[in-house]
Amino acid sequence: MAQLAVAELTAVCTALMRAGCWNAARQLLQASKTDDPDEKLQLILAEADAAVDQDFWQGTAHSSATLSALQDAIAQARDATVQWDLEMLQLRKDYSTALFSADRQPADADALAQRAERLRDAAPDDSRAGSVTFYAGLIAELRGLPAVAFAHYTAALELAEQSGDEFLASLALRHLGGHAHTAGDLVSARTQWERSTELRQKIGHLLGALAQQALLAVLIRDEGDRPGAIALATEVNRWARQLQLVWLESQTSEFLKETVG
Questions:
Q1: What is the pTM (predicted TM-score) of this model?
Q2: Using one digit for the tens of pLDDT, what is the confidence trace for 19-43?
Q3: What angle (nearest 5°) sits at the alpha carbon of residue 76, between those of residues 74 and 81?
């Protein structure tokens, strides 16, 4: 029987997830067997991560069962760090639900903000603290608090740099670039969006790189190059359609309608 260390296995599954191969990642994790309770917990955690990520990108509903299984496993293991990871996954899932909900309520966003604050205070390391700080920024956007969001993104970038977390840095730069773009600072927006794109390409995050290229298409249009913007958005839209990235396909389709028309 073939054997593979859990850390190596979960790293492979993260790579598959970032390439949009969530089902393959989850199937690989489900097929993996171990008698070690801690390793079992790590496998369930990785599967929950993949499910939450897929739900966000494709609008699916895979995470409820895996989050429930993770909760049951943690109840037996009593691992404080994994408990934090579970609550962070639940926050990510609930933020995604709120973001795409047609019936978003202000109280829901306020509750998410309180949960993010508690997680930030309890974060066991800089990378995790940066991740929840970034999500606090996203939640502040939902609450209509752009200045608060900007401060969170700035803090998240600092924590990403301290911990060497390039994925987190790419997230913070994406949204800091969005604030620069909104303020009309196209030079800063390009610098931050291009850096975010480069980081995502470096770590093999196909989905994130596509999302960044969609933003670069907006920037190219605003800089005056409509044909270039249309060409780039068309390619991103084609990729999004093939990978069934629901919101990215919709976003680029709307952009093309506005720009071509």
A1: 0.94
A2: 999 999 999 999 998 888 888 899 9
A3: 35
